[in-house]
Amino acid sequence: MLFRRRKPAGFKEKMRELLWPRKGFLRSIRYLTMRILRLSASPHAVAAGVAAGAFVSWTPFVGVHFIMAFVISYFLSGNMVAAALGCAAFGNPLTYPFIWGITWEIGHLLLSREDHLAGQAVDLAALFHKLNFSELWKPVLEPMLIGAIPPAAVTSVALYALTFYTVKGFQTRRRTRLTERARLRLAGPASDIPSV
């Protein structure tokens, strides 16, 4: 192996690396940011893809987030890679507990169910074991889906605007830098020609 460690990592080191990466969590955030900025698509396509990924991350349908993001991104003329990166950045195991809690509370608030379900317990383990969609819809999926709409709309619009202007500025600066570099490269050999 080309990049293998000389001394394999032990169990303790693997567990520490899992809980707290050696390079820190900011490195992965910087990587995702640079990966999104360097996409060779228009600022609208990149921003629409990221917004689609963030929008579907609020929904309770965890297994199909990428597919939903691709479909929404396709209809918005967005970039599929940006949609996947938006899903991965916004909807991940660190954010899902907060997303689910927020959507649950907003859904019950919008459906005015707080007093209706007070004192009733929902046995999620039994509902997921049966996998009966009709029994799972009313107590769990409906409030989470209704509650996902307001924060998903606000988040996706804000991320669209932020991503659009950031990508546009990055691409403009990069284009200017590359043009200047090409101009200097073309002007360099001409100045080396000796005058007769």
TrEMBL record:
InterPro entries: DUF2062
Keyword Membrane: yes
DUF2062 domain mapped to chain residues: 26-175
Upper classification of the organism: Bacteria, Pseudomonadati, Pseudomonadota, Alphaproteobacteria, Hyphomicrobiales
Domain of life: Bacteria
Keyword Electron transport in record: no
Keywords of this entry: Membrane, Transmembrane, Transmembrane helix
Chain ranges passing through the membrane: 58-76, 83-103, 144-167
Name of this chain's protein: DUF2062 domain-containing protein
Pfam families per the UniProt record, alphabetical: DUF2062
